[in-house]
Amino acid sequence: MPETPAENAPEPTEEDIFEQKAVRLAKRERLIAERESAAGGAYPVSVPVTHTIPQLRAQYGELEAGAETGDQASVAGRIVFSRNTGKLCFASLQSGDGSRIQAMISLANVGEESLQRWKDLVDLGDHVAVSGEIISSRRGELSIMVSAWEIAAKALLPLPNLHSELSEESRVRSRFLDLIVRDTARTTVKARATVNASLRATFAAHDFTEVETPMLQVQPGGASARPFITHSNAFDTDLYMRIAPELYLKRAVVGGIDRVFEINRNFRNEGADSTHSPEFAMLEAYQAYSDYNGIADLTQELIQNAAIAVAGSTTVTWADGTEFDLGGQWDRISMYPSLSEAAGIEITPDTTVEELIALATANGVEIPKQETHGKLVEELWEHFVKQHLTRPTFVMDFPVDTSPLVREHRSIAGVVEKWDLYVRGFELATGYSELVDPVIQRERFVEQAKLADRGDDEAMRIDEEFLRALEHGMPPTGGMGMGIDRLLMAITGLGIRETILFPLVK
Question: Can you say which residues are annotated as belonging to the binding site?
Answer without folding.
Answer: 420, 427
